[in-house]
Amino acid sequence: MTPDAFIAKWQANTRNEAAASKEHFLDLCALLGVPTPNSDATGATYAFEKGVRKAAGGGGWADVWKRGCFGWEYKSRGGDLERAHDQLLRYAGALENPPLLISSDMDRIIVRTNWTNAVSDRRDLALEDLRDPAVRGLLKACWTDPDRWRPATTRQALTEQAAGDFAELARRLRARGHDPQAVAHFVNRLVFCLFADDVGLLPDRLLSGMLDYATRAPASFAEAAAELFRAMRSRGGRIGFQPVPWFNGGLFDDDTALPLDAADIALLTGAAALDWAEIDPSILGTLFERGLDPDKRSQLGAHYTDREKIGLLVEAVVVRPLLVEWGATRARIAAALEARAALLREARAPAMAEAAVLAGAEAITAESRAARTSLRRAADRRARKMAELLEEAGGAYRAFVDRLRGFRVLDPACGSGNFLYLSLLALKDLEQRVGIEAEVLGLEPALPMIGPEAVLGIEVNPFAAELARVSVWIGHIQWARRNGYPPPSDPVLRTLDTIQCRDAVLTAEGAAAAWPAANAIVGNPPFLGGKVQRRALGDAYLDRLFGAYAGRVPPEADFVCYWLEQAREAIAAGRTERAGLVVTNSVRGGASRKVLERIRETGAIYAAWSDEPWTLDGAAVRVSLLCFAAGRDGPAQLDGEAVPEIFADLTAGASDLTAARRLPENAGVCFMGTTKVGPFDIDAATARAWLALPTNANGRPNADVVRPWRNGLHVMRRVEDAWIVDFGATMTEAEAAFYAAPFGHVSRKVKAARGEAARDSAAQPWWRHGRPRPQMRRALCGLGRYIATPAVAKHRLFVWLSAAVVPDHQLLVTTRDDDTTFGILHSRFHEIWALRQGSWMGVGNDSRYTPSTTFETFPFPDGLTPNIPAATTAADPRAQRIAAAARALVEARDRWLNPPDLIERLPEVVPGFPDRLVPKDAAAAALLKRRTLTALYNTRGTPEGAWLDGLHRALDAAVAEAYGWPADIPEADALSRLLALNHARAGSAAASGPGARPATVED
Known about the structure:
Elements: H1 3-11, H2 17-32, E1 46-50, E2 62-66, E3 70-74, H3 81-90, E4 100-104, E5 108-113, E6 122-126, H4 133-144, H5 155-175, H6 180-198, H7 206-216, H8 221-233, E7 238-239, E8 242-243, H9 262-272, H10 281-292, H11 307-360, H12 366-405, E9 409-411, H13 418-441, E10 455-458, H14 462-482, E11 499-500, E12 520-523, H15 533-537, H16 539-548, H17 561-572, E13 578-584, H18 593-602, E14 604-616, E15 619-629, E16 636-638, E17 641-643, E18 661-662, E19 670-672, E20 681-682, H19 684-691, E21 706-710, H20 712-716, E22 723-725, H21 733-737, H22 740-754, H23 774-780, E23 785-790, E24 792-793, E25 799-802, E26 806-807, E27 811-814, H24 819-825, H25 828-837, E28 839-841, E29 846-848, H26 851-855, H27 870-873, H28 877-897, E30 903-906, E31 916-919, H29 922-929, H30 933-937, H31 946-963, H32 971-992, E32 997-998
Parallel strand pairs: 3-4, 9-10, 9-12, 10-11, 12-13, 14-16, 21-26
Antiparallel strand pairs: 1-2, 2-3, 4-5, 5-6, 7-8, 13-15, 14-15, 16-17, 18-32, 19-27, 20-22, 21-22, 23-25, 23-27, 24-29, 28-29, 30-31
Helix pairs in contact: 5-6, 5-9, 5-10, 6-14, 7-8, 7-9, 10-13, 10-14, 11-12, 11-13, 12-13, 13-14, 17-18, 24-28, 28-31
């Protein structure tokens, strides 16, 4: 068909939709040269009249549908194409969310885009437009290449731009001295007004007109804005003669408006030009919070968590369990309606029999009357049963709809509302889906009624709490528009006092805070490691917190654990069905894991993602996502895979290493290094100058207290020339004062830095390190060297350090000097144990090693345990083979790190201190910078690291032989045997007296 023929035929058309729509579509296919629905005989991917006949009469979901391309709805000439579009929106989910929604009255074709994360676009085509080959090509792409219609602007990019504009406006207002909270409240109102203007809630683009006028008269803006807010606040509001809908909601609780200057108006006018109808509430709150809260200004432009990650938890905690319930309900409905249909089919036979009785009887006899009566009684029984079955089906549907409408989701750390918004959308989408599926079964679907009251929030930050309400309101209205329903009215905004601005874990009186009852708990509680909580929260708060949760959450646990414990208790008490929270992935180990163990004691972890990228305050971090309930049906899901159960360390398999216990034979051997708590470190030049001074008045050299110092970075990178002043663990102030130069430095630097605490020298000797580790020092006595490993590192490896070196708290010290112990610790068996027993830190997802949970639980080979002196095991052939392999590894590794042709070894100024390693020249220095242990171990598994792999294999084989295992034993089997050995040793120790203890974290 030619364009002229098509246009002429359909300009002359006078038939209605039902008579002409199919012919119009077939002619359009002929014009464009695309297949018709008749090409798909099954209708599985391309069909006329896709969907069902509605229970209330009328057509189905779409007049034409092509999978992955479009849904197409017709109306008669001059018909309401907005209603056609609304129907497509309502059933978009049932149509598999086609990217294009097309409506036509045979004079016009309106194409609207429907991609999830793209700004919606619209194109109106008239009959005459089809003469243009370019227009025909674009229309043909609806069949052949729908992506040609995809808008370039994403909702994310639009929201980022809007947030940037308003962040600048907020900055300008604060700079003029306005209160930050007043600025935030004012900006939130403007944000919602711009949205309301673009979606038609404000009549005649009221705000746009106000801005146009203010461009010419900036001083008028504050008064005009106040008048608008006042009109929006109450029912029956007006601007002049123009009625304004009643908005309410608390956002327009007064008419306060801040004055704007010409530059502010220009900024706001530019922002108003954006398509606010398409703003993305899932990131709106986060981005605007950064702009409105002065404390978060530095995070502008930083990343934020995408909705897909949040969706993992919402799906697992809210959607999937409700879909399981709906599946069972739908099956009952289908069974009842099928039984009713069977009775209806049966009813036809008696009706025919009655007709035959009447037709065959020459006269009404007693016998014919009896037959008719019997048939009618049977028909009445069937009718009653059919009515009962219909009521049973309808009752089951209504009961489930009531369940959905009463479902509540709580985010007890809701921030600016990301989880709340996506939870609300999930519930509304589910309500819509249930209605459509009920309609397919033959029931009248209920209108969607779920609203913002379905989501509950607790948030301590007032900036974020109000943004959460705005995000939820906007999301609710957007859902109605996108699904073909009118927006809420009278009032537009329901009051959201369900989002409370308060502390979620502690009351002002120091008790554990109460949470409102909810069916599900989701969220992303604040991340604060156990070591930084006191600095961030303050001593008084933290002391009250520890008191309120004594016996429930260990004091060393991450802050997020208080939310986990609250959610666990709510589930155990029956106030909540399920919870899903984002937590630091370090909760898998250490003190934090105790809270996960409590969750397993009273319930089950039924889904988890053990290690995921996340965004915290604009920075990339690694997190775990876990979902738990009172119990579970069927297998759990770990990292997307079905597993029998999930352990407290968020692993699965045959061995639950969280059940490992501390072994007495390992006690008192592994320690954390010293914690300075002040500027005790000094530069190398100063250190050597003090070491060269004459002996002090006590007859002792400064070498007693001026020592080489190493931390975790020194080990993993190049060894720096680092030094520290260390007065030990027992030296008194009077004794320390004899070391005049070092004492003077500490007195001036450290005493001042410690401030008020330094005045109470009895409680905190200011001249000593904050935590000088006296037990470690006693264990090191008599040793010439010790084993060290970084507390947090990408690779779990061990090094030798001279006993003269003071270890920092970022090093874990094993107080043994024998190669056998070194070799066992550096074997793959201890490494895999450490990776499972430790925790994980930072964006690099580096492993964390602890003395108690990692070292003290590890079962060494029989006869080679740390409580046996090295001299006793020296003659053991197993120990000798391990020691030889360990020495070979260390020697080769040291030659790679410090090649003799690149470095010079210079004796230190004090005999017994480790030699200085100095590059021979600048070229050597440049080469040595790249030779670090991290760089070396990054080559494992590559041809360049083959020599290192070989040395480790030899060491592993020697250690495996000591255990009596094959060298190639699989990792899972090795862990299982190690756990069994741990339990056997712990059980033996328990039988002989106190000793074996649950693993905890050293302070």
